[in-house]
Amino acid sequence: MEVIICHDPDCAGEVSAAKVAQVCKEAGPGVVLGVATGSSPLKTYQNLAQMTRSGELDLSQATAFALDEYVGLPAGHPESYHEVIRRTVTEPLGLDPARVHVPDGSLAHIATAGDRYEAAIKAAGGIDVQILGLGANGHIGFNEPTSSLSSRTRVKMLTPGTRADNARFFASVDEVPKHCITQGLGTILDARHIVLVATGTVKARAVAAMIEGPLTAMCPGSVLQMHRFATVIVDEAAAGGLALGDYYRQAYSEMPAWLQVHV
Ligand code: GLP
After folding, report:
1. How many helices (H) and strands (E) in the chain?
2. What's the CA angle centered on 160, arms 156 and 163, to 5 degrees?
3. What distance in Å separates the CA atoms of residue 57 and residue 93, rounded to the nearest whole number?
4. Is ligand 1 within 6 A of the CB of residue 177?
5. CA dist., res. 95 & res. 83, Å (int)
6. What number of other Cβ atoms are within 10 A of residue 213's Cβ?
7. Among residues 68, 128, 165, 190, which one is catalytic?
8. Could you identify which of 103, 124, 130, 206 might form a hypothetical disulfide with 191, taking C-beta atoms 3.0 to 4.6 angstroms apart as the criterion?
9. How many domains is the chain built from?
10. Could you give the count of Cα atoms lying within 13 Å of 36 in the half-sphere of its Cβ?
């Protein structure tokens, strides 16, 4: 795992976007992106959007797969991840909406939604770079603690803590759905590159557990320890619980030029 400690969230947004853009350029115009909702990657998307506006990056032929969706929200609900991805990713990055996929959280089709999503990712050739945030309890996507480390896209029940965290997007916590459909930890591990962004003191414990704790389903993010090309980008506040913080800072600041070409 490559750990990059940035001084603030703006810097984390710039560095994470540069990492994602590097993979996009290597993969070519048909790059397949994995995209996350949540506040953590918003600055990443803003920087990528700027790159597309300046012509440095062209994502018009890219495909994207979202990580997760609530189950049972009416189509077009502003907090459905279909809508959040459209607002924060599809439009600003200039993606073709026909090639942006979000798990189907409609109750009528939920029994087959996971398998259909896995098949769609496979048909697209797999995900080249998966952008991730991190929940305060260590979840990635909506894979709550004790998720199977080899899980695939399926329905999960949200923890009360995650529903409380996400209540800020709804009128009250009671309106936050109890169920979600999320790519599994095994699905996420299949991405060729992973770029995770976490900022703020509220994430410090989860960041430390993910990077330095044991590999355990109690901290789903720790599964990234198994990935060959995972980059974790945090700000100083989120890095507060790391035992080896100085080592990561030194490794990044003194990285030889010949190593910097590899994500
Ligand atoms: C949500 C999403 C995750 C996100 C996480 C953290 O529940 N399903 O994909 O990474 O919580 O969100 P935030 O970045 O807003 O802290």
Report:
1. 9, 10
2. 80
3. 9
4. no
5. 14
6. 18
7. 68
8. 130
9. 1
10. 26
Is the CB–ligand 1 distance for residue 133 below 6 Å? yes
Nearest atom in ligand 1 to the alpha carbon of residue 37 is 9
Amino acid at 75: A
Q: Do the beta carbons of residue 70 and residue 83 sit within 8 Å?
A: no
Looking from the CA of residue 197, the nearest atom of ligand 1 is 14
Share of the chain above pLDDT 70, in %: 98
Model confidence pLDDT, tens digit, residues 35-45: 999 999 999 99
From residue 244, give the alpha-carbon distance in Å to each of 8, 52, 162, 253.
Answer: 19, 36, 28, 15
Which of 139, 165, 166, 235 does the annotation list as catalytic?
A: 139
Q: Is 139 annotated as catalytic?
A: yes
CB 201 within 8 A of CB 208: no
Catalytic status, residue 115: no
| CATH code: domain of residue 53 | 3.40.50.1360
Query: Does the active-site annotation cover 68?
Result: yes
pLDDT computed for residue 159 by the predictor: 94
Structure tokens, 176: 């936050």
- Give the domain extent around 218: 2-260
Write down the pLDDT at residue 260. Answer: 67
Ligand 1 atom nearest to 38, measured from its CA: 15
Mutate to test the pocket of ligand 1, among 16, 35, 37 (most ligand atoms within 8 A of CB): 37
Q: How far is 41 from 54, CA to CA, in rounded Å? A: 20
**Residues 169-214 pLDDT 10s:** 999 999 999 999 999 999 999 999 999 999 999 999 999 999 999 9
**Quick one: tokens of 256?**
């030889």
Residues 6+ apart with CB under 8 A from 142: 67, 68, 156, 158, 162, 180, 181, 182
**88: DSSP letter:** I
**Residue ID of nearest Cα to ligand 1 atom 13:** 38
- 14 a catalytic residue: no
